[in-house]
Write a structure and sequence with these properties.
Blueprint lengths: L1 H39 L5 H11 L1 H8 L3 H4 L2 H26 L5 H42 L3 E5 L5 E4 L1 H7 L3 H4 L14 H14 L1 E9 L5 E12 L5 E10 L1 H15 L9 H18 L2 E9 L2 H8 L1 H17 L6 E6 L2 E9 L2 H16 L2 E2 L4 E2 L3 E8 L6 H6 L4 E3 L5 E3 L3
Parallel strand pairs: 11-13
Antiparallel strand pairs: 1-2, 1-5, 3-4, 4-5, 6-8, 6-11, 7-8, 9-10, 12-13
Helix pairs in contact: 1-2, 1-6, 2-5, 5-6, 12-13
Length: 423
């Protein structure tokens, strides 16, 4: 925001310089016409005087229009405005004399010349004050530029880097000397295709600005996410003279975002998907099975003796047992399958694209066998008794809830553990 205010103030001051120079030039022309009529005895044409007066009054129109609040606080600016009004009234009287055929006398010239001299002195004082203000603005802008928390990069219209600030070097690892004269391509991460960069350039040409998330690369080769804002800077003719880019490293914010997303979708103890993510994955797997006309298996695993272990050895041992059960469950499944923890000792597995109900039963028996082996928890071997229920889509239902409810008929497997199925 400070940089924007400074830019507006600089624009006001530079515009004022231009108006003051035009004011003096036009009044010099007017004074010269009057002096010429006195010295050479040539009466100026009233149309010429009117044209000069109109040109001179351009300053008055600019002064009265406003749009320069900083300048209006300066006493010299007010004095110039008041003096301009007096000169305008004097010029109008001389113009009326010329139109009426009344000759201009030396007293008229001297009076107008004295006002013109006073105007020049006031303009000189105002320009000195404005130069001091401009110097202060430039110094402040330089401090803001150098000490800004965001990285700043200024380029030419063709993309050559003209300057960078300290935050730029801290984020990217490139020194100011390495960056100046280079192209922003030195930060290119390789994560975006050419179409991405073309869209940025299209927005800059169409709208004059672009902002969004982008991945860049530090000097050490590490890629990082940043929030980037690019603005086109135009000169007095409206042509783009520079591009200014401001960016912030959002690595920490992205990590926090990912951590929160993981907490929302994964069980913090076992690292398995939680109930929310399980439902999403089940919906996706059912849609895929329906589209391909295949089968989907749903296995529910329950640890029957888990409460005894928890009560006898403590919650720490119970947590360790659940974590190891989750690891064995993962190893029994394919990468295309999903294992999730729904509640305390209740797990579930989604078997995508199974060949048959017998194939799902085989996976269930594999899981039961893996979990039946003893666990090393806080010293002694610990055994738990797992059981599982099986539901097959579309045989047991056309949606996830019906398939889940279809896992209550018991079928004993050869090892004596329970495998629930509905065949």
């Amino acid at each position: 925001m400070t940089a924007v205010l400074n830019a507006l103030l600089v624009e006001q001051i530079q515009h004022c310089f231009g108006e003051l120079r035009r004011l003096l030039a036009n009044h010099d022309i007017w004074t010269s016409r009057i002096h010429e009529s006195l010295v050479c005895g040539v009466e100026p044409r009233s149309d010429d005087l009117a044209e000069d007066a109109h040109r001179r009054c351009a300053f008055g129109r600019w002064y009265d229009a406003g749009g320069h609040p900083y300048l209006k606080r300066l006493p010299e600016f007010d004095a110039i405005g008041a003096l301009h009004g007096r000169m305008h009234r004097r010029a109008a009287r001389l113009l009326e004399q010329a139109r009426a055929g009344v000759p201009i006398v030396p007293e008229d010239y001297r009076g107008f010349a004295d006002l013109a001299l006073e105007l020049r002195v006031l303009v000189g004082r105002l320009e000195d004050r404005l130069k001091e203000s401009l110097g202060a603005v430039y110094k402040l802008t330089a401090r803001v530029f150098e000490n800004a928390a965001e990285g700043v990069m200024i380029t030419t219209p063709d993309g050559t880097i003209l300057d960078v600030n300290r935050a730029f070097t801290e984020v990217t690892g490139y020194t100011r000397e390495e960056a100046i004269g280079s192209s922003p391509r030195l930060l290119k991460s390789g994560r975006h295709d050419e179409a991405f960069y073309l869209r940025i350039w299209d927005a800059l040409r169409r709208d004059g600005h672009w902002n969004g998330e982008i991945w860049n690369r530090r000097k050490n080769g590490e890629t990082y996410p940043e929030w980037l804002s690019i603005n086109a800077v135009e000169d007095e003719t409206g042509r783009v003279s520079h591009y200014m880019a401001l960016f912030s490293d959002i690595t920490t914010a992205k990590r926090n975002e990912e951590r929160l997303a993981r907490l929302a979708h994964y069980d913090p103890l076992t690292g398995l998907p939680n109930r929310t993510l399980f439902r999403e994955r089940l919906g996706q797997a059912l849609a895929l099975a329906e589209r391909r006309g295949g089968l989907l298996g749903l296995l529910f695993i329950d640890l029957d003796r888990f409460k005894l272990v928890n009560d006898a050895l403590g919650h720490g041992a119970g947590d360790q047992l659940l974590t190891e059960v989750a690891g064995r469950l993962r190893r029994c499944l394919r990468r295309s399958d999903t294992a999730a923890r729904l509640s305390g000792d209740e797990f579930v597995a989604i078997l995508s694209e199974v060949d048959s109900a017998d194939g799902a039963k085989e996976v269930a028996r594999k899981i039961l066998t893996a979990i039946a082996y003893p666990f090393k928890v806080c010293g002694p071997d610990v055994f738990v008794t797992p059981s599982t229920g099986i539901g097959i889509y579309p045989r047991h239902g056309a949606d996830g809830e019906r398939v889940r409810h279809a896992t209550h008929v018991v079928l004993d497997d050869p090892t004596g553990r329970r495998v629930t199925d509905r065949s």
